[in-house]
UniProtKB/TrEMBL annotation:
This is DUF7745 domain-containing protein. Pfam families: DUF7745 (PF24924). It comes from Gossypium klotzschianum. PANTHER family: AMINOTRANSFERASE-LIKE PLANT MOBILE DOMAIN-CONTAINING PROTEIN, PROTEIN, PUTATIVE-RELATED. Residues 1-153 form the DUF7745 domain. It comes from the Eukaryota.
Length: 154
C-alpha cells in the first residue's frame, strides 16, 4: 500500500487549493536570495549574510528565521516566516536545522495557490525508496504525515 495524492490532499486539508495546478519547478524563477527577501521582508544584504552552504544545498539557519518571527514588525510576514519554518523543519527536513532552496520554491508556489501535495508525496516516495534501496538511512520527508496515513490504514 502507498499513499495517494487524494489521501494526502485530505490529510493536509488543502481542498481549496487549485488541484489542477501542480507544483513544479519553473525554469525562470527568482534566485534563492530574492525569494527569501520577498518572503521574509528583510533586505537582500540581511538574507545574503545568513545563507550557508550545507553539502550541495544553499540554506538559511532556522534560528535566523525564528528570530524574525519574534522581532518582525509586520504580522503577515511573521506568519509567512513561521509557515516557511514549519515547511522546512517538518515537511522537507533535508538539512537539519536549516531551510533549503527547495522549501522556498515550494513556499513560493503556495502563494499562487498551487497544491503542494504531489511534491510532498514525491519526496515521501523518493526518501522511502532510497532507504529501502540502501537498507538503511534516514527518512527525509514528513514523518508525521506518513504516520497519520499509516494509522488511517492499519
Amino acid at each position: 500500500m502507498v499513499p495517494t495524492v487524494e489521501e494526502y490532499t485530505t490529510l493536509l486539508r488543502c481542498p481549496r487549493i487549485q488541484v489542477d495546478k501542480v507544483y513544479s519547478r519553473a525554469a525562470n524563477v527568482l534566485t534563492f536570495t530574492k525569494k527569501l527577501t520577498r518572503i521574509i521582508g528583510m533586505s537582500e544584504q540581511w538574507v545574503t549574510a545568513r545563507i550557508k552552504q550545507k553539502g550541495e544545498n544553499r540554506c538559511i539557519p532556522w534560528r535566523s528565521l525564528r528570530d524574525q518571527i519574534l522581532a518582525h514588525p509586520d504580522t503577515k510576514k511573521k506568519v509567512d516566516v513561521f509557515a516557511l519554518n514549519m515547511y522546512g523543519l517538518v515537511i522537507f527536513p533535508k538539512a537539519l536545522g536549516h531551510i533549503d532552496k527547495a522549501v522556498t520554491d515550494l513556499f513560493d508556489q503556495l502563494e499562487r495557490r498551487v497544491t503542494p501535495v504531489p511534491a510532498i508525496l514525491a519526496e515521501t516516495f523518493r526518501s522511502l525508496s532510497a532507504c529501502r534501496r540502501t537498507g538503511e538511512g534516514r527518512f527525509v520527508g514528513c514523518a508525521q504525515l506518513l504516520l497519520v496515513w499509516f494509522h488511517s490504514h492499519f
